[in-house]
Specification:
By secondary structure, the protein is mostly beta strands. The protein contains no helices and 11 strands. The strands form 2 sheets. Strands 2, 4, 5, 6, 9, 10 and 11 form a 7-stranded mixed sheet that branches. The protein has a 4-stranded antiparallel sheet with strand order 1-3-8-7, with no helix packed on it. The chain is globular, with a radius of gyration of 13 Å. The chain starts with a strand and ends with a strand.
Length: 123
């Protein structure tokens, strides 16, 4: 069973950047599809980005397309979310997740979740 720990969140001004990291342990990262989700207060959790086991397939939600990039380093067992041109509406708790299916963009596709990291974007 893989354990996931997110880091890199914080408070930033609009227009700035952050890079989130998700460190995996207890499993072979290269066998999992990975995703980043977020949940803002009062709203449902939503997909932000996903990446397949090899990194060949990637998905970005329309709301972050062109601003956020997901990547993975299977050798370092880390998945990243580079977030540029941040907006106040990006404020949320960001979660890293792993799927045994190798790929997925729905919450139900994912088997393991991290505890989340808070991202707050001020205007």
């Amino acid at each position: 069973q893989v354990q996931l720990v997110e880091s890199g969140g914080g408070l930033v001004q609009a227009g700035n950047s952050l890079r989130l990291s998700c460190a995996a342990s207890g499993g072979t990262l290269s066998t999992y599809g990975m995703g980043w989700f977020r949940q803002a207060p009062g709203l449902e959790r939503e997909i932000v980005a996903a990446i397949s086991t090899s990194g060949a397939s990637r998905y970005s939600a329309d709301s972050v397309k062109g601003r956020f990039t997901i990547s993975r380093d299977n050798a370092k067992v880390v998945v990243y979310l580079q977030m540029n041109s941040l907006k106040p509406e990006d404020t949320a708790v960001y979660y890293c997740a792993a799927t045994l299916r190798g790929w997925g963009i729905a919450i139900a596709d994912y088997d393991y979740w991290g505890q989340g990291t808070q991202v707050t974007v001020s205007s």
